[in-house]
Write a structure and sequence with these properties.
Strand content: 15-25%
Distance between the termini: 27 Å
Helix content: 25-40%
Number of domains: 1
Oligomer: single chain
Number of helices: 6
Structural class: alpha/beta
Radius of gyration: 15 Å
CATH superfamily: Class I glutamine amidotransferase (GATase) domain
Number of strands: 11
CATH architecture: 3-Layer(aba) Sandwich
CATH topology: Rossmann fold
Length: 181
């Protein structure tokens, strides 16, 4: 199961595009609303989450995805249950995906210490000992996939497909949507 956390003010493209690509690859994906089922993104689009945070089954989790958007990132960081779920995913060896400002959550939790990562320039100063790759759209280091921003939503989503289902499946999805990245 892939869980995508949605806090108020999340960046819509960074949540919807990866979730769509993962579902096209046949993976089970659930959007998780931190404050309830209706969550409004940073550009006023309201999404109905599949689950609330209390309904997440951490034992079934193979990947946890954190979209950016400064409001959504702040919502996740202020939610003790959300940060506990991130720590549990990391401890269990699940894949973690974070895009835009969301890699700063992982950096603040010490998960990116001395690792390579991509993130939005607005959080470069919050990345601690992370080796931020300022040019890469997507970076994989261990079981953590990070990406720059909304413009990287497609390559980020395809990389998430690749790490879970293999490069052939990711290429199949890219071909089906005519992605030319």
């Amino acid at each position: 199961m892939v869980y995508i956390l949605l806090g108020e003010g999340f960046e819509e493209a960074e949540a919807i595009v990866p979730g769509d690509l993962l579902r096209r690859a046949g993976l089970e994906v659930a959007y998780v609303g931190l404050e309830g089922p209706a969550v409004t993104g940073s550009h006023g689009i309201t999404v109905t989450a599949d689950l609330t945070l209390e309904q997440v089954d951490a034992q079934k989790m193979e990947m946890l995805v954190l979209p950016g958007g400064l409001g959504g990132v702040a919502s996740i960081q202020m939610d003790l249950f959300a940060t506990a779920l991130i720590q549990k995913a990391y401890a269990q060896g699940c894949w973690l995906g974070a895009i835009c400002a969301a890699p700063s959550i992982l950096a603040n939790l010490g998960m990116l210490d001395r690792r390579r990562a991509a993130c939005h320039p607005c959080v470069w100063d919050e990345m601690g000992s992370t080796a931020v790759d300022r040019e890469a759209q997507v970076v994989v280091d261990g079981r953590i996939v990070t990406a720059q921003a909304a413009g990287a939503a497609y390559p980020f989503g395809l990389k998430l497909v690749e790490v879970l289902k293999g490069p052939e499946e990711a290429q199949k999805i890219a071909d089906a949507i005519l992605y030319r990245g």
